[in-house]
Specification:
single chain; 172 residues; alpha/beta; 5 helices; 26% helix
């Protein structure tokens, strides 16, 4: 039985390595992000944000757990240090609150290599995607590849309250 939609949906869309100073949304002279500029005009734009770390391996676990890097310890000793199973994540809290949870990841550092895919009802890791224009993209999953999985998933779960976490790389 699918959970019924009675709560607002939550979408966390992370674009790894995206620089604010290269986005027209934040005043960059070239029109690099027209969609984000449109979205920002209709919503809230944060002008002064800080990350706990400039590296994905530390910063994404901090977002997903609300713990500082020295507390969650992902990547502290080794590049491959995962998030311990005992650490409670955002998806754990939302699942407990009745949300259907899904992870769509093009970036293994923000997912499988950090054990951040734990606790999701659905998890689509970088190997789950068919990459269009494989040679042009150098074998990396891009947003269009993700969207071929995300859009049907959203259509199939439109009546559910869901949390989806999407992480991709910047192409700007």
């Amino acid at each position: 039985k699918k959970p019924r939609r009675n709560k607002p949906n939550v979408v966390l869309y992370v674009i790894d390595t995206l620089r604010a100073d290269h986005l027209s949304l934040y005043g960059y002279s070239r029109n690099t992000s027209p969609f984000l500029a449109q979205l920002g005009a209709k919503g809230v734009v944060f002008l002064n944000c800080r990350s706990q770390s400039p590296w994905t391996k530390f910063s994404i676990p901090t977002i997903m757990t609300s713990l500082y890097p020295h507390t969650h310890r992902v990547g502290n000793q080794s590049y491959t240090d995962p998030l311990p199973e005992s650490v409670i994540t955002l998806q754990d809290y939302l699942r407990r609150d009745g949300y259907l949870t899904a992870n769509f990841s093009a970036n293994p550092l923000g997912c499988t290599l950090s054990n951040l895919d734990q606790g999701f009802d659905y998890s689509f890791t970088p190997h789950a995607y068919e990459i269009s224009e494989h040679g042009k993209k150098k074998g990396q999953v891009h947003s269009d590849d993700l969207n071929r999985r995300i859009i049907p998933w959203l259509e199939n779960h439109a009546n559910s309250s869901f949390f989806i976490y999407i992480i991709t790389f910047s192409t700007i």
